[in-house]
Write a structure and sequence with these properties.
The complex is a heterodimer.
Chain A: H1 2-25, E1 28-29, H2 49-74, H3 88-96, E2 103-105, H4 111-116, H5 121-128, H6 152-167, E3 173-178, H7 185-196, E4 201-207, E5 210-211, E6 214-215, H8 228-232, E7 236-240, H9 244-259, E8 265-270, H10 290-297, H11 301-311, H12 317-340, H13 346-351, H14 359-372
Parallel strand pairs in A: 1-7, 2-3, 3-4, 4-8, 7-8
Antiparallel strand pairs in A: 5-6
Chain B: E1 2-4, H1 6-20, E2 24-28, H2 44-48, E3 53-55, H3 60-72, E4 76-80, H4 91-97, H5 101-104, E5 114-119, H6 134-138, E6 144-146, H7 151-163, E7 168-173, E8 182-184, E9 197-200, E10 205-209, H8 213-226, E11 231-235, E12 238-240, H9 244-254, E13 257-264, H10 268-281, E14 290-294, H11 305-308, H12 312-323
Parallel strand pairs in B: 2-3, 2-4, 5-7, 6-7, 10-11, 10-13, 13-14
Antiparallel strand pairs in B: 1-8, 6-12, 9-11
Classes of the chains: A alpha/beta, B alpha/beta.
Amino acid sequence: MTKMASKTQSAKKDAKKVLDVVEEQFQTLQILNEDGEIVNEAAMPDLSDEQLQELMHRMVYTRILDQRSISLNRQGRLGFYAPTAGQEASQLASQFALEKEDFILPGYRDVPQIVWHGLPLYQAFLFSRGHFQGNQTPEGVNVISPQIIIGAQYVQTAGVALGIKKNGTKAVAITYTGDGGTSQGDFYEGINFAGAFKAPAIFIVQNNRFAISTPVAKQSAAKSLAQKAVAAGIPGIQVDGMDPLAVYVATKEARERAINGEGPTLIETLTYRYGPHTMSGDDPTRYRTAELDNEWEKKDPLVRFRKFLEKKGLWNEEKENQVIEQAKEEIKEAIKKADAAPKQKVTDLISNMFEEMPYTLKEQYEIYQAKESK
Amino acid sequence: MAQMTMIQAITDALRTELKKDPKTLVFGEDVGVNGGVFRATEGLQNEFGEDRVFDTPLAESGIGGLSIGLALQGFRPIPEIQFFGFVFEVMDSIAGQMSRMRYRSGGRYHMPITVRSPFGGGVHTPELHSDSLEGLMAQTPGLKVVVPSTPYDAKGLLLSSIRDNDPVIFLEHLKLYRAFREEVPEEEYTIPLGKADVKREGTDLSIFTYGAMVHESLKAADELQKEGYSVEVVDLRTISPLDIETIIASVEKTGRAIVVQEAQKQAGIAANVISEINERAILSLDAPVLRVAAADTVYPFSQAESVWLPNYKDVMETAKKVLTF
């Protein structure tokens, strides 16, 4: 009896020890610190000066896009919108590591990635307005429109990745969710399936600390979200999500592994959304303090990358202003183009239900056609 | 008595029952500090503590399973599914598990769970936030499905739902949350489940409806009155089980009927109401019973929803077809 009891006790101790050891391994990768200094030379990605400038260009452009989208939403000229400021490094540096043939499955906040992957901006605005033409991705742009159900894109990513593998294409499937998304069953199923099939997938968790109002500490007992990869038997890494270089390196390496047949990777980026959850009435002051906002704004990805590039002589105010002007101009044009899209009709939606329209829908098509031609 | 919106009446009902029954628990996504995305649980965590009112991790399926487990431990869970379009993530817990527990355990266990959830269109949400999926619920044996149309009913029906020892799906129409105020008693009262409410008496035609369509139907009835028709409007309130007695009595009185629902036409509640009428009162009918419903498409992207959603004009048009048959 005594012997058995001590055995059980030691097994219990070991289980705890395994967890401690695992959790200790998940340290945050940082290359560029808040002051724009390289703190991890060995991990520096191999990026040309032009590439570094291009990445900065995209981050500045996207910050302006966010500001304009918020103001257009307030004027009633855009519909559903989930603000992106603060998450530029997580979103854009990961997309920057991709090739055109890679397939993106975004969540609803991940519009910038699919725009930089080739979705015309006016279509992003049509998506926001709830117009189906926003979701008619052009041929050759390998993205699907943003997912609304939290986590649903994760399992689908395993499927896209397995399809890529079966087709023998040199490409990856990449998906995004937030800290809250890691609580969904779909998250676990997605990383587990991709691992079991050794499918070329990259799973990114943008841990922006809050799932609407619920802090990450209430989502899980796990110390990091990256460590959830361990249970699926796949590599996982936590990176400073405000550091574009760290996000880029982690994604680039995950892509190489995937292309080489080594299966999927889970990447957790530590980031923050400065704005509300969406523009539909969320008030972050109910669940976040101004101190926490300030703390994270000091880590801003644009600020540190700008400092870094300025020191290298690759960026200045003039360049920045050029990007801002270009962004404003292109946004204006895109809104015009979105305004010119024909008003969406119920008959359009009826036509998109089936390849062949059933009898009852044909009848309903005629009824709505009469209504809508009035 | 206080003037309350539907959302206030719901909060009031939750507070009433949290006070009265220590076994009740309110939980879901953002229901704690944030008070729910529509503020249905505003202030409740402060008042009753995190043990009774709490945020869950973000997983609808988890919320469903947790509810079943807590019910097995003698609690009376009142989970919130943030939007009813997310119900697909928790269909197994609802339709595959809690609805069957009493039956499969031969009565040993029961599931006194009230799943609250906002649903319904007209407020320009993104996809899967406005769908009327009550038909899926009503098609599931073992569930009761309740849809209030007024603040007064919301409180009385929610208290009955929570106290019911079987699972209830309690659907709160988004557009009605803050549409209007009315007198709601501050003390507790209940409205029995399975009882319809004759909102407006009439002799020429019966309109059976529920949720936001009650108000479109009442408006249509007022307009039809001006044209000399006396229209009765019956708010079903509970769509499963149906109040057959009230439905049949109304049809026997008027001899003509239509059913109005916001959901798509295919299958659904209206089809079921019509079948009940045909099976029980066909000889009382002077005309076929028709439906007003939405098109058989996915709930439309926001830009087309105003045309897609049935309104009082559609109700009038169909009513006249039956009235002049």
